Structures are given as C-alpha cells and as structure tokens.
C-alpha cells in the first residue's frame, strides 16, 4: 500500500527541484518566472492585449502592465495600435523577444531531457497521462 503522505512529499520535492532548475536557467537569461511566462504567452498568442495576459496569468491589470513595461524596456515586446479599435494596444514579441523564447525552449528541453532520462518511452507516456490527470482535477489551485 502506498503511503500517500510520503508520495505527496515526494511530489513536492520533485516540484522544488524542477523549480530550482528553472530559476537557475532563468537567472542566466536575466528573467523572472513571470517574465518568461509573458514571453511564452506572446510567442503562442501574438497580438493579444494586456487584458488577455492578465486573465491568462490570473494577476491584476497593474501587475500585467508592469511585466509588459519591463519587457518593453528590454526591447523584448512591442505594441501596435489595433486597426479595429484604436484604444487597444496589441502586443508582439520583437526579434530579440523571439530569440529569448528560443533560448527558453532550448534550456527547457535540455532540463526536461535530463530530468526524464531515467524513463523509457512507455514510462514517459504513463507519467504524462498521470500528470495531466492530476492537473485537470486541480485546475482551481486547491
């Protein structure tokens, strides 16, 4: 029989190790976790607004604005006025922002490969199914 308390502790330990690795990789790129999330968001959803980002990150409008402002100062994000509604500013990655996203993917791929190296393909598929199941059932953060 599995000791659920021990399993939960192991999952926390695993999460902490992944988080520490991520922090290390992001520090090398001079990014915070939230800044990396913003870059990855606009790589996937170019032309979205701060309002969309706020909803995606579940942060206040001010927090989303501050994140975008910092990345604009670093020339990683640029805004364009919407042709449909001149009040809307649509956000896009700059060339430098796209390059930064490529680096994020490369570092994440290496970290993932190192982390998953002990598993065979069948085990990776099983792990993916279990992680997805857990995430789907706990989307509200409880």
TrEMBL record:
<dbReference type="GO" id="GO:0003700">
    <property type="term" value="F:DNA-binding transcription factor activity"/>
</dbReference>
<dbReference type="InterPro" id="IPR000835">
    <property type="entry name" value="HTH_MarR-typ"/>
</dbReference>
<feature type="domain" description="HTH marR-type">
    <location>
        <begin position="4"/>
        <end position="136"/>
    </location>
</feature>
<dbReference type="InterPro" id="IPR036390">
    <property type="entry name" value="WH_DNA-bd_sf"/>
</dbReference>
<dbReference type="GO" id="GO:0006950">
    <property type="term" value="P:response to stress"/>
</dbReference>
<protein>
    <recommendedName>
        <fullName>HTH marR-type domain-containing protein</fullName>
    </recommendedName>
</protein>
<dbReference type="InterPro" id="IPR036388">
    <property type="entry name" value="WH-like_DNA-bd_sf"/>
</dbReference>
<dbReference type="InterPro" id="IPR039422">
    <property type="entry name" value="MarR/SlyA-like"/>
</dbReference>
<dbReference type="Pfam" id="PF12802">
    <property type="entry name" value="MarR_2"/>
</dbReference>
